[in-house]
Amino acid sequence: GLMVDSVNDGDAAIEHLRTEHYALILLDIVLPTVSGTLVMEHLQIHNPPALERTVVVTGLVVAEIRKVFPTVVHALSNPVLPAGLRSAIRSCVHQSGEGTAIGFIVA
Asked: What region does 97 belong to: left with phi over 0, alpha with psi -120 to 50, or beta?
């Protein structure tokens, strides 16, 4: 099973990321207060390996996200299909090497 922390904005996401380790980060680019792009910049500075465990959901062109954040392995364009999301989550959890994923979802 998954243990999930959920936050409603980018500020709260950054606060959680300062104190918690997550096997998976599910991050929308469009967030209140602080954008998902700024959350990724925070990760790039403070915890670069976490970007490899981040699934980015965006209405932007995925190739543009990867230009700025090349270590982001999983980026999904809206609308996100459930099968694609499940596949990206499984891949991130598998790459993390952790048996039980501690999840992180930005709503």
From this structure: left
Q: Of 70, 55, 61, 59, nearest to 25 (Cα)?
A: 55
Burial (CB count <10 Å: 0-12, 13-18, 19+), residue 53: buried
Structure tokens at 84: 């694609």
How does 70-82 read in b/e, with b if 16+ C-beta sit within 10 Å? eebbbbbeeeeee
What is the mean pLDDT of each successive set of 10 residues along the chain, which is 107 residues long? 82 91 86 88 91 85 79 82 87 67 47
Structure tokens at 104: 């992180």
Cα(88)–Cα(5) distance, integer angstroms: 18
